[in-house]
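Re: that chain you flagged

S.,

Sorry for the slow reply, it's been a week of failed gels. I finally had a moment to sit down with the sequence you sent. For the record, here it is as I used it:
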Amino acid sequence: MRLRNINPSFFMLFSGLIFSCLFLAPSGAHAQQNNDELYQQLQLFGDVLEQVRGNYVETPDDKELIEAALAGMLSSLDPHSAYLPPKGFEDMQVQTRGAFGGLGIEVTMDKGLVKVIAPIDDTPAQRAGMRPNDLISHLDGEPILGLTLSDAVDLMRGEKGTDITITVLREGEDEPLEITITRDIIKIRAVRSRVEGADKNVAYIRLTTFNQQTTSNLKLALNQLPAEIGQKKLAGFIIDLRNNPGGLLNQAISVSDMLLDQGEIVSTRGRSPEDSSRYNAKRGDMARGYPIVVMINGGSASASEIVAGALQDNHRAIIMGTQSFGKGSVQTIMPLPNNGALRMTTARYFTPSGRSIQALGISPDIVSEQIIPEDMKKREARTEASLRGRLDGENIDGESNSKDTKEPEKKPSIAFIPPEPADDAQLQHAIKLLIYLQKSASSEFKPAS
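Prediction finished late last night. Pasting the structure tokens below so you have them in one place:
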């Protein structure tokens, strides 16, 4: 293989890549065969790289070529693995801290377009009317097709006060929608809480995301609401995880721990035994044994599903709503020497009973459908199962989780939450259930003394 016109630092990078791949591979005859095949593929990569650098109509940027190759390699694995260039990694770290400049939407990639998982409460995107499952095809007139998710997210972010025009493909709309949104500093309120019910005796807590602020904010709400309502008057807690796209695994574990007095929370299994972990609750239920209703829908994903699954399998809460999104995999962030990172799927997670929700989702104990506006009824909801390249669901025993479905497969429900609580049929259903549990002498939930 000839590598002409390559500067020394670039050659050292490429040679180091080959050496690292061969050095990290296992030993043995079979491993040697794999090494030989890998080396042949790296030679092919080098040949293609040489042709592009030497013969493309314009002089390409070496850094951009390598980053594009890395992005393509990671995106070919599954919808949630990605290469994060330095700027993308920095943005991700800012987002997990709970403040960043942009629009306020959680997104993923779907068939080359950006799909909205959910707009974040009280952000420019939500106020502009962005909805779950919207497909974004253009940003300021430029097509998204061909961009990585990180590239698209980078374009959507920007300085406060600047505008961006987004072209949206929405189910039920004959023509693409042009939506102009003014960027702002997105300060994500991970937890919102208020008193609900006709008698003002229901503690309502909405978790919008799982960032570094979620656990501390939830702890504050769990202390403040009972004090505001009164211990004797309190009917119970509604934990609203609808349209919560997830976030940090450790926050999902700590949130679950706060609401459990004992039992397993979640377990993870990767390719190697050392990649497996099990997390258990410590004593101390901050809800003090009061009834809990957890609300989910098709926009509840990842960390939200961990919490719902932990409370469901430990019989600590009633899960109400519609089938969740079905993202049952764990992504690990691996920093790179260039200040970028890999976001790579390294494990599947399992609920305490050993079930996987990957491409399946959490099934509610009580199905409660939302009243959908007429203009949204023809929309097609998307789930993890509909994403190209997604992982198959396997329970902890290695069997497919498709056997866990008790009912014939039906069309996923649209993830919609009315802006006014009085119009929110699911919320009103949850409030009525808590009031019933409070009045019912046969309720299994007894407040701790």
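What I noticed first: The first strand starts at residue 82 and ends at 84.

Talk soon,
D.
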